[in-house]
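Input set for joint prediction.
Command: fold jointly, output tokens.
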Amino acid sequence: MTVDELSRIANRLRLDVVETVHDAGDGHPGPCMSIADIMAVLFFDEMKLDPANPRWAERDRFVLSKGHACPILYAALARKGYFPVEELKGLRSLDSFLQGHPDMNKIPGVDTVSGSLGNGVAIGAGMAMGCRMQGIDNNVFVIVGDGEEEEGIIWEAAMAAAKFKLGNLIVFADLNNHQSGGKVTELSSLYPVADKWKAFHWHVQEIDGHDIGQIQAAIAEAKKVTDMPSFIACKTLKGKNIPYMEDNNAWHKRVPTDEEVEIAREALRDKI
Amino acid sequence: MALKSTREAAMLAIQELAREDDKIVIVSPDSVAAARATKFREEFPDRVIEVGIAEQDAVDIAAGLATTGMKPVVVTYAGFLTMRACEMIRTFVAYPGLNVKFIGLNGGMLGGEREGVTHQFYEDVGILRSMPGVRILTPADGQQAYLAAKAMMEVEGPCYLRLGSGREPQVFDDGTPFAFGKIREVKRFGDDVALFASGFIMDRAIAALEQLHADGINGTLVDVSTIKPIDDEGVAAVLSRCGCAVTVEDHNIYGGLGDAVSEVACRLNPCRVLRVGLQDKYPRSGKAAELLDAYGLSVADIVAVAKQAAAK
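tokens >
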């Protein structure tokens, strides 16, 4: 798929998120926008998947460690054909299978429970070990936020994945410098984050998380490294491409009004 | 078969099963020696996933392994497993119902004894009993632990096996069966009082039953080796016969066997249930037998509480 096509898919997913959160009346839209381009590349260009057979053993695995960004995961799964797009508006409601955070049994295409922050790297490491032990030639992709890297288990998992030389584990970090309570740089000493992963013996790349070509190139590079897990540090913008959401942490969890949905549609009209 | 301890026995069972099933792996947060899994590691060096001292990581890695069809067994000290990695067990294993097994070492005061409170774990059963979908096994000795470990691996989904210090006496004869989800009458002198016991203080419950008999009170001793799901019908039948009961466990009186039996009594056969166990306090370091005696788990304590129950 071309860079332009993938960029348009990313924006389609962004608008899906705005409409989903609006229709559902709940959810976290801001954290979805910063990973839209990574999601588009993974689900529509990179990952080996079969929507008709969601539990296909040979598939690539995906872990959305920052599970609160699930509206964009659900949008990607719907657009990929796992379930009808019309189901998205049921998000977080009792009669829908679309849980407030990802559920691997209720939602086709979801590979693990996630949403309690910090757990995705360890779960992804377990998946990578399990696939490797069974001779499955695939990759496990994880997206972590920057805020959740304040959790201790992230670093336990970083050590284990390096020890086991999990070359089939590729972690994207969505470095938008926002977390629920404010700026990551103000709330913690996480940054410089890439240096920390290097010190934990990961193969580290630093890219623009909104540059489709850079995302594709980083994945290609990461797949060449077979004796180290990969960490792709992605500089991103929270709320990217939705004018009133960009770099505005008020949109971490907030429902757009009818008018705000229209503004988003207008902003993305020529980009989808 | 001479099995020296619950730890050796359970690991022998896992090792035997691993020969038949290459999906069985051990996930260890620096617990191979403690779990008596060195022989397993010698036979299956690639199937011991040593993650270092990192219990949360161990449980999440096991969850990830299980999503791919592997059958991980996470083994480490009962409290570090169920307290430090509590949320990982609940959210990433029990909630999706993944096929991860847990073995908790040093269950109870008896397990931690001289190490002190940091290494004595009498909340593990209560913590796990409150999580939907987690089965809990508390075998009484090495031979039972061997059978319990095999039974655990036969069921699909999360299950916790509570083991002790590795110095437990064998209390049951070889050939004594283990039935998942069922209570077993150990000895019945009569129906004056029911003693429900679980785990490695079974020897004290047996001694108490004998002492009661000598004192003219004829009771029934029941081994509750599956705490969850509790054998509702079996427990209720014994309660119905005896009309009063005492529970005996090396666990806090809240959350464990005492509560489980009390809940059955409330629902199916209301009667007096008194609980012998740690009386909701933090104990201290000491030699195992002295420690149990000092904190209300002596044979004399069990006898006294049983007499109180039987007095009605």
